[in-house]
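Reproducibility note. Readers wishing to regenerate the assembly model reported in the main text can use the exact inputs given here. Chain order matters: entities are listed in the order in which they were concatenated for prediction.
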Amino acid sequence: MSMAVIMLNNPLELALMLSICAISVSMIVLAIARITCAGHRRGGYSEDMYLGGESSSSLRIRIPSVTAMYWGLISRAFKRTFSALRDKVHSGILNEWFYYMSIWFFLLTVIAIITIVVCTRW
Amino acid sequence: MTLVEMLLPLIVFPGLVFISTLSLFTEWIVRKIVARSQNRIGPAYVGPFGILQPFADFLKLFMAKEEVVQMYSSPWLAKLFLSLGIGGIVASTLMLPLSPFRFAAPYDVLVLSYLCTVWPSLSIVLASILYPNPYTYTGVSRLIAMLVVVEPIWIASILVPVVLASHLYNAKYSIYLTSVYAWRLWMESPIVAAAMALAFVSFIVATQAKTMMKPFDIPEAEQELIAGHITEFSGQTLALYNILHDIELTFSALLATYIFLGGPYPYRHLSIAGILVLAIKYLVIVLAISLIRACSARLRIDQGIRAVLYLGGVPAAVALILTLLS
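Running the prediction on these inputs yields the following structure tokens for the assembly.
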């Protein structure tokens, strides 16, 4: 058994080729699923959704959307950052906003200069 | 290269058949280690030492169990998305040195990131929301919140050995060439070794969170959300989800074996010693992940996100800075 390296010059060509490979594999998996499901026992086509023993009337209660829950989780996980943003940037006082933005622009400028210096050295 | 030469690695080795078999074997190892750590026996009845239990579980779900079709669901579309996730990872195995035909290109680390992070993550999210349910939606919102933090950390930790190998040995940001030089990086200098160690820790934490193993099994959260985003999965859909999860874990462990630990080094691939060394390195990574799972309890979602950020994100950032300085 020999082992060969197929070196392509363009990563886009590789991405395209491997994407086609991925789609081919997924079609094979789907075909196997289709063939093997022929002899399956199947549930009814009108099963209610599983609500952990609650009746479907509980669905009348409005629940937040996935997007709202996502932002809720993120803002809870990064509470300090969000609090700082709310208290400093959206405090309504122009001086605080100017002070906050100046610090960030200064920090970004320093990072940009360090990046340029490091990249130029290479 | 003929079509047969292309299809053989894709379907048989190291493609669909091999990675599926290895992933089910890996599941057995994980279950056994976790069980023994918790003073339980673990899988014991199917095959010697219960080694065939994950195979039996998969076949039962895939071929025999009833599939409950909920009235608002789209089961075949969900199966299509899960299959695409499996396909993305299987195609990525062709970039590893394990494959008889290794595909490489300059900057192919971007292709690997695209196939291993975008495809499986999106496929799980899309398959889950095709089964509408309040528990599913809550699980999906948690899943997206975790993935948004975890995937960049996973990619950042991979970038460290790739960038180091490219600058020191002209590896062209290629996964295959990085894995060839990975073992030399540990001996290059103390700064490079420290960057590699930090990136390795970050990769293990990110993999733990990516594969939703304790303490990061927050989207599933049994007893709290029923089963979170997979509450409505059953039969073949659940079988495909389970195998996608196992394949994701297996591929991550294989990738770490190659780009962090140097694969079969100091031996060659096609030697018994090389295969043994490769297997031992792979098992050490699986053991580490299993022990973390066995020894920890589930975190709350905000704690989980912060834990990934501090234990995975900070080491990855420091490793990248050390990489730039080295």
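We highlight two features of this model. Strands of chain B lie at 101-104. Chain B touches chain A through 73 residues (CB under 8 Å).
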